[in-house]
Specification:
With 127 residues, the chain is an alpha+beta fold. It has one domain: 2-Layer Sandwich (Beta Polymerase, domain 2), CATH 3.30.460. 52% of the residues lie in helices and 24% in strands. A 4-stranded mixed sheet has the order 1-4-3-2, with helices on both faces. α2 packs across α3, α2 crosses α4 and α3 runs antiparallel to α4. It is flat, with a radius of gyration of 16 Å. The two termini are 24 Å apart.
């Protein structure tokens, strides 16, 4: 599937701790971090000098909504190649319209991704 040249990693932990020392080390390594209360998780992002997002590391509790979303949508796309193709084409268009604006790129995909997520959950529940 086409995508931005971005490393995107999901790290699943038993319990989401404050991770203060780890956050300091990630910031020292050039990452910015954000805490998301809903669904609960930490995201570390690394950007180029031009502001382009290069890496995203998502840290979530094992039973969080994020883990379900990431894994279920991944599995759904693997078993529904037509949806993967449709999403890939949308991502390509979004990057063409917003080559250097990651928030705009994400916003352009958001409605499709929300619908895709719901389809994936229905698919998962029907297995």
């Amino acid at each position: 599937m086409k995508a931005k040249p971005l490393i995107d990693v999901l790290v699943v932990v038993e319990k989401l701790e404050p991770f203060e020392k780890e956050k300091e080390l990630m910031v020292e390594a050039g990452y910015k971090w954000q805490y998301y209360p809903d669904p609960e998780g930490l995201t570390f992002s690394k950007f180029s000098n031009e502001g382009e997002k290069l890496e995203g590391i998502h840290l979530c509790e094992e039973n969080s909504l994020w883990v379900r979303q990431f894994i279920t949508v991944r599995d759904y796309l693997r078993t529904h190649p037509e949806k993967a193709k449709e999403y890939s084409e949308l991502k390509q268009k979004s990057i063409e319209f917003h080559p250097n604006d990651y928030p705009a790129y994400r916003n352009a995909k958001a409605p499709f991704l929300e619908k895709l997520k719901q389809e994936a959950y229905q698919w998962e529940d029907g297995k």
